[in-house]
Amino acid sequence: MTTNLAETKNEAAAESTITPEDIHLPPSSYWPIVLAFGFSAIVTGLALNIAISIIGVVIILVAAIGWVIEPVHVAEDH
Fold first, then answer.
1. Which domains are assigned to the chain?
2. For position 6, what pLDDT does the model report?
3. For residues 33-57, b (16+ Cβ closer than 10 Å) or e, as one string?
C-alpha cells in the first residue's frame, strides 16, 4: 500500500515540475531601499534634529510614489 502511495506522489511531483519559464517575478526595483532609507532618516531625526525627520518624510513620499508608478511589465526580448 505504501508503494502505491509513493508512486502516486512521484507521479504528481513529475506532473507539477516547474520550469524557469513558468516562474514570473516582478522586475527589480530600488524604491524599497530608498523607502527604508527614508524611514531610517525619520528615526535618526527624532534622535538628533527634526529637520532630518522632515527630509525623511519627503524621501518616503518620493519613494512611495515612485514605487507605485513604476512600470510593472517590462518588454521581453523574445
1. 2-69 (1.10.287)
2. 64
3. ebbeebeebbeebeeeeeebbebbe
